[in-house]
Amino acid sequence: MAPKLKDTGRQRAREGSPWTGLWVVVAKEMADHLTSVRMRILEVLIVLTAAGTVYAAIRNLQETVGQDPFLLMKLFTTAQEPLPAFVGFLGFLIPLIAIALAFDSVNGEFSRRTISRILAQPIYRDALLMGKFLAGLFTLALVLTAIWLLIIGAGIVGMGVPPSGEEVARSLWFLLASVFYGGIWLALAMVFSIVFRQPATAALASIAVWLFFIVFWEILVGMVAPILRPVQFNTAEEILAQAQLELALTRLSPNTLYSEVMLALLQPTVRSVGLVLPIQLHGAILGTPLPLHQSLLLIWPQFTGLIAATILLFALGYVLFQRREIRA
Amino acid sequence: MRRLWKVFALLTLVSLLCGISVPVMAQTGESTDEPDLVLSTTYPSQVVALGESVTISLKISTEATPQVVWLDMKQIPEGWTATFRGAGKVIKAVYVEPDNSASVSLKLEPPANAASGSYEFVALARGENGEVELPLELVVEEKLPPKLAFDIDLPTLKGKPSSTFRYSATLKNEGDEEVTVNLLADAPAGFTVTFKSGGQEVSSLPMEANQSKSLSIEVRPYAELPAGDYPIVVRAQGDNAEAVLSLTATVTGEPDVSLTAPDGRLSGRAYAGEETPFKLIVRNTGSAPARAVEMSASEPTGWSVEFEPKEIDEIPAGQQVEVTAKIRPADKALAGDYMVTVYARPEDSSSESVDLRITVLTSTLWGVVGVALIAVAVGVVALAVLRFGRR
Predict the structure, then answer these.
(1) What secondary structure does DSSP assign to B211-280, as a single string?
(2) Are B328 and B300 found together in one domain?
(3) All residues at 6 or more sequence positions from B21 whose CB lies less than 8 Å from its CB, including other chains
(4) In chain B, what is the straight-line distance between the N-terminal and C-terminal CA atoms, in Å?
(5) Is residue B368 part of a domain?
(6) pTM for this one?
(7) What is the chain A residue with the closest CA to B338?
(8) Of residues B155 and A187, more confidently modeled
(9) B247 and B266 assigned to the same domain
(10) What are the tens digits of pLDDT across the range B95-130?
(11) Are the Cβ atoms of A312 and B380 closer than 8 angstroms?
């Protein structure tokens, strides 16, 4: 992405690299994030959650599972009443952290009146925004990696079974998916922090979107799909068409994408995250684990969707931020 | 006077001497007429088998005089030997007391070429004052020579190489003696022969005189045996007798088809919607050629399995033929393991099946699409940077 010095005529082309000062911003922002009280609270919350669920999972596994080639995966997915599995917590803890990291990233600078001071430095606007976003993403990755290590360590100590290469690979891909699932909410909160002047408004808007997808989207889909694809004659085609539409609409939610990625990566025996016709299972040997690359291929659309959505949301925020009038 | 005394004394001495010796003489004279000895036996006449030696127990007793009795044979047929035995030793004489009779055994051994008939013996006991005789008789009878015989109803059996040939025979001891019979079998290579009597596997068995026992002779051929008639000779060997039984096992040919892979691995990978060849080996491990072996498969719905060749004209016994199965998973097959059963069905034999485990892989095409999606997103950011940068 080497910038070219080019006169478009209508508008003067940029001068210099957009990367200049990027890493300074990243370092400063990360330092801010990691020392902020807000992050401390969230970290304590997530570590407690991880410790509690993994402890419960280990207790459960020690009692119930004799032998399993994917014991480590079970650590993430085993739930014991009344606690849900750790991945269940991750589904709403990650958006919470991501929103907390970014809801005041841009409008906070405005309200503190520091933005003009920063931009007076030899730092481009792109570098500032990119730096803020990357710092958020890195902080998120740092927190999740720490928890990932904590869980694997607890698993080794608690169960005495070293993880296999495939287990580590699967959980690393899962970690990557978690980071980009957080990336979507990070980019979204950043967009809102650019759009709204008040940090509280941005935070509320972000949480509203999050709640919409986590609670209302499924209800809405359940209502919309029968209207668009009504089942009139109760034929298999109609029912199938309705189910497919419902699934396609559900997948617009990042929560659905993330839970499908989670399912395929942490449960190797899962063969499909979509609709499966009985005819497709004829002759299949069920219960056999898929190789990692096949599991990845299975959720590759979801996975790339998460990454692409993160990048596109960032692009939206970038355009909005660049078009913004900044006065000293 | 003195001379007279001497004559008187001499007369007295003579008369005394005479007085002592007279009663002794009288006694001896009495026993010569009636000897004070009894030689007896409980069974003076016995029937014995030809070639058998016999031992007769004799009893010697006296009523009055303890004495040494000399024993001998007065009459003995030619060639026979007689020995007196007492307390395990060969003896010549025995000492008897009035209240204590002596027991002596007399062993009579026939010569090697003794014929049947009646033989007279006289045993003699000679005591101090006379001798007594004891006539003995041995009737030597000729026994039936030991003889074994087999009896079988079905000496020829027909069967497949995988079957067991069970012959039911009866072995009879027609002799008068008990015989221990050893059972032997002389079978061509490729057969194992076992004998069973009363459910137990036996190699030798005792047979009493005139006894018959039913025997089950089990002949088990090895599976690869070519078709043909196989003679099996069974012998029952006794001490001096032998019986021979000739059996025939007619082994008919049987094709036995087995399916395997060249390296024994019955699993493989195939991409959904793409035809993948799998090499299979059809082997005839039977003893007859397998004709018109038809290949077929039961595959999951939407899959196609084609064989090259579809039908094998003939697989000679012990030979193998390579078959290529072209397996094409369904276009929409889910990734994972599937079972495809392949059958080889010879015209005149049971079919053989083998399960192939096919791991279906999905195409990485969609992966490329996903990467392209990310590339587009990055491109959008790049365009935005170019378009809106340094505003």
Answers:
(1) -EEEEEEEEEE-TTPPSEEEEEEEEEE-SS-EEEEEEEEEEPP---EEEE-TTS--EEEEETT--EEEEE
(2) yes
(3) none
(4) 206
(5) no
(6) 0.63
(7) A284
(8) A187
(9) no
(10) 888 887 888 888 888 888 878 888 888 988 888 878
(11) yes
Distance CA B291, CA B313 (A): 6
Inspect the interface and report whether the beta carbons of A3 and B376 lie closer than 8 Å: no
B88 conformational bin, left if phi > 0, alpha if psi -120 to 50, beta if neither? left
Residues B113 and B189 both lie in one domain: no
Instruction: Note the ipTM here.
Output: 0.71
Does residue B13 lie in a domain region? no
B294 found inside a domain: yes
**Count of domains observed in chain B:** 3
Do residues B368 and A298 make contact, with C-beta atoms less than 8 angstroms apart?
no
Residues B357, A285: C-beta atoms closer than 8 Å: yes
Residue B5 contacts A, CB cutoff 8 Å: no
Contact A175, A146 (CB under 8 A): no
Within 8 A of A305 by CB-CB distance, chain B residues are 370, 373
Q: Among B193, B219, B251, where does a domain finish?
A: B251
A113 class by beta-carbon count within 10 Å (0-12 exposed, 13-18 middle, 19+ buried): exposed
User: Is residue B72 domain-shared with residue B156, that is, in the same domain?
Assistant: no
Residues B45, B136, single domain; the answer is: yes
**Residue A282: alpha-carbon gap to chain centroid:** 35
Tens digit of each residue's pLDDT (9 = 90 or more) over B66-88: 888 888 888 888 888 888 988 88
Alpha-carbon dihedral of residues B71, B74, B76, B79, nearest 10 degrees?
A: 80
Q: Omega into A278 within 30° of 0, i.e. cis?
A: no
A322 with B340: Cβ contact below 8 A: no
For residue B284, is it within any domain? yes
Same domain, B261 and B172: no
CA distance A87 to A77: 6
Tell me what percent of the residues of chain B surpass a pLDDT of 90. Answer: 3
For residue B148, what is the enclosing H or E element?
Answer: strand B148-152
* Domain stops at, among B185, B217, B251: B251
Give CA–CA dist A163/A167, Å, rounded: 6
Chain-chain contact of B380 with A285 (C-beta, under 8 angstroms):
no
Candidates A104, A86, A87, A131; CA nearest to A38 is: A104
| Both structure tokens of B132 | 């007594």
Domain residue limits at B156 = 148-251
- B313-324 pLDDT, tens digit per residue, is 888 888 888 999
Q: Are A166 and A264 in contact (CB under 8 A)?
A: no
d(CA A286, CA B147): 71
